[in-house]
Each structure stands twice: as C-alpha cells, then as structure tokens.
Write a structure and sequence with these properties.
The protein has 427 residues and is of the alpha/beta class. It is built from 13 helices and 13 strands. Strand 3, helix 6 and strand 4 form a beta-alpha-beta unit. Helix 3 crosses helix 10 and helix 7 packs parallel to helix 8. The structure holds pyridoxal-5'-phosphate.
C-alpha cells in the first residue's frame, strides 16, 4: 500500500480541469501548438501590473535583517494592516490587522478556515455550479459537501440555500464573481442570504459561517461593483487572494479577514493562525507579503478581459451556442445544444445534475458514471476540433461547459473554426 486508498481513488478520478489540461498537451503534440485553442485553465495571461513588479524588486533588494526569517503564523503586521484597510473599504466593516491572517492563496485560506471550524461530519453548503476544488477541500477536513441550487440564470437564490441548511451546517461558501458562471451577486440577494442565515441561527442555535470566496472581486465589467458581504451577516469570513487580480497565481499570496462582529472572533483568529501553521503552510510567503502590502491597490487591466469576453461571445453566438453573459471573473459558462455528434447512435445523456439539492454531492470532478453526459461528449467533440473546454460535470452541473477566456486574443480568433466545425457535426 504505497499510498492511501483515498488518494489512490482521487488520482483515478482526476479532475476535469486537469484532464483537459493533459489532453491539451497530447493534442498539441499531435496537431501542433498553433492548432490547439486552450480555454481550460484559469491562469491569467495578463502580466502583473507595474506597481507590483516595482514593489517586488524593491522588496527583493532590501537588506533589512530578518527579511527571510520565520514570522508569526498570521503574517507580518504591516501586511495584515494593509489587508484590513482593503477589506474595510470593500466590505464596510471596521477590520483591523488583528482580524487578518495572511495565507498561501485563496485555496490555502479556504482550507485553513475549514480546518478551523469543521468537526467530522459537519456540513458545508456550496451553490451549484461551484468551483470543483471545494469538494476536495471539504473532504480534507472530514466535512460533508451539501449542494444548493442557484436560480436558473445562475443568480443567488437565498431560498434554495435556506432549504438545505441543517443543524449540522457549519459553513456556507459564497463565490462572487463566480467561477464558473461569471455572475456577480447583487446587494439585495446578499442581504436576503444574511437574513436567511441569521434566522436559521436563531432557530437551531448554531450560526453557520459564511465563507466569502472572492479572488475575482476586482474583475468585473460594464461598470458593475461587487457589493459588500461582511456588513450583511456577522459570522462571515473573507477568503481571497491576489492570484487573479494581480495575475500572480504562482506566487501563492492570499488572506483571511474575519468580520469584527463575529461572536467568537478572538478564538477564531487564534484557530486560523494555528491551522495555518499545522497544515504545514507555517506562514504566507514573506517576500510576497512585502510586495503586495506595497502594491495591493494596483489593478489588472480589466478592459482587456472585457474585450476577450466580447470576442468569444460573438463567436459562440455565431456558432449557435447559448451562454450566460459574464458580469465578472473570466469564465463563460455555455449550454450544450441538444443533439449528439453526427454518426453517433443517439443523443448523449441529458446531463442531469450530479446530486439533487440538499444531497451530498457525489464528488464533482469525478469521471466515474458520468462519461455519457452531453457536456462530456460535447467537450470531447470540441477537443477533436482543437478547442479545449471543461465539462460542467466538473462543477456539479452537467449539460454545460466552461470556457476560460484569460487567453491571448489570437487563441480566441483561432478557435472560431473549431466551434463552427463542432456545431456543424452536432445534429
Ligand atoms: C472560486 C475560486 N476560489 C479559489 C481559488 C483558488 O485561488 P488561489 O490560486 O488564490 O489559491 C480559485 C482559483 O481558480 C477559484 O476560482
């Protein structure tokens, strides 16, 4: 038994994002890199803003003693002070440096939070479709994933969340701007969710934490603003990062911000700081804390993502593929048209959701038992025409596919032929 059974099972299942990424490597070897149009991975292709690069150079050039030493597990006080200023501006609550824990990306932040608040068997509610890694993160900390539906247009449906809450609900994860739909939840929906959670807490005597996963907060279009969330519900915690907004996902810098109104704030922050250590992160990268503390106000050039969104949307419209128009982030979630590849024996599976609302999700991102859903068949047909996407089943939402448009414009332009050829062969 060289590795644990659970890890072996996880390897066998793989994740769809990873599968498509690997398929892309094989496809590039077969067709040549110029003939492959890869929309599978949310890896920002814009370079970081110059403010970040300058701050990084200055931090790297510093000869301050101890600049590379261990520090307290929650991070440098000046970095936490900078994050508290950011969160206070964005969420309208008086955060201080004491409410912040610097983390290894948003992924590290979510794992630290779940590790701190979950007892075995506690439930974590996610809203479908959802970021595929949530199920692994909940598993890591012996929790149980419970899915709630979004509204048909992928907006937030607080009543659907209310229906799946139980006395075992330890947390609800909210992700806006959303991966994979690009939806930005408006203030009235956030307020209604806060009311639902407060009413549930009074009824069962346990207040679920609202985990606000918002690494795409600054990537929004058409003048939209992402509303505050912490001001809508006291037991709320931000998990965020600079991976997408400063285009530095490889540098792994994120943070947790605890709502100062949280009933057990001091205990919670101590727990988070300890989990940061015992999960093996110890503390967030020192150099990045310095660089980002000095440059967090810089923004990615969102107009470039907006142009790519519009270019891809025009191609999909021309090809006859319907999609949810993104309000933020850099993903297009597309409905797979009725039909099947020409010459196949019939329509592929309809793509019913992986688990009914309120049920424990099977394991989104798994391949077992869903290979004939329409989204998988369509993603494979696109792949044969050089276009890489991710089937919706990877996000707990079969029947749709995700396209990631943080790619060069020539990739988008070049993909047109592949979309048209796929649709011509889909009857
Ligand atoms: C919704 C969502 N949350 C969290 C993360 C993890 O971000 P990070 O790279 O900062 O760990 C991602 C990354 O794609 C994401 O899409």
């Amino acid at each position: 038994m060289p590795i644990a059974d659970a890890v072996r099972a996880s390897l066998a299942r793989g994740s769809w994002i990873r599968k498509m990424f690997e398929a892309g490597i094989a496809l590039k070897a077969r067709l040549g890199a110029d003939a492959v149009f890869d929309f599978s991975l949310g890896n920002p292709d814009l370079e970081p803003p110059p403010e970040f690069t300058a701050a990084l150079k200055a931090a790297a050039g510093s000869d301050e003693p101890g600049a590379h030493a261990y520090m307290i597990n929650s991070g440098y006080p000046f970095a936490r002070a900078a994050m508290s200023e950011k969160v206070a501006l964005e969420h309208g609550v008086p955060t201080t440096a004491d409410d912040i824990v610097m983390t290894v990306g948003a992924a590290g932040a979510i794992n630290v939070i779940l590790g701190t608040v979950l007892n075995p068997g506690d439930e974590v509610v996610v809203i479908r479709p959802y970021f595929a890694e949530y199920s692994a993160y909940v598993d890591n900390h012996r929790g149980v994933l419970v899915v709630a539906d979004s509204a048909p247009d992928f907006s937030l449906d607080p009543a659907a969340v209310a229906r799946v809450l139980s006395p075992r609900t330890a947390a609800v994860i909210l992700n806006s701007p959303n991966n994979p739909t690009g939806r930005v939840y408006p203030p009235d929906a956030i307020a209604a969710l806060g009311a639902v959670l407060s009413a549930h807490a009074s009824r069962v005597g346990r207040a679920p934490y609202l985990i606000v996963d918002e690494p795409y907060r600054d990537i929004v279009y058409d003048g939209l603003e992402v509303p505050p969330v912490l001001s809508a519900y006291p037991e709320s915690i931000v998990a965020s990062s600079f991976s997408k907004t400063l285009s530095i996902p490889g540098e792994r810098l994120g943070y947790i911000a605890v709502n100062p109104a949280c009933a057990e704030k001091a205990l919670l922050v101590s727990g988070l700081s300890t989990l940061n250590r015992v999960l093996g992160f110890v503390n967030a990268p020192a150099l990045m804390q310095r660089a980002v503390a000095a440059s967090w106000r810089a923004k990615a050039d969102v107009s470039r993502y907006a142009r790519r969104r519009d270019m891809l949307a025009a191609i999909l419209t021309e090809a006859g593929i319907r999609f949810a128009k993104p309000e933020g982030a850099f993903y297009l979630f597309c409905e797979v048209p009725e039909g099947s590849p020409a010459g196949s024996s019939g329509a592929a599976g309809a793509g019913s959701p992986a688990a009914a609302p309120g049920q424990t999700a099977a394991s989104p991102g798994q391949t077992a038992g869903i290979s004939e859903t329409r989204d998988v068949t369509f993603a494979m047909a696109l792949k044969e025409n050089g276009v890489l996407s991710v089937p919706g089943v990877g996000f707990g939402y079969p029947g749709w596919i995700r396209l990631c448009y943080c790619v060069p414009e020539k990739t988008i332009e070049g993909s047109r032929k592949g979309f048209m050829a796929t649709m011509a062969g889909w009857t």
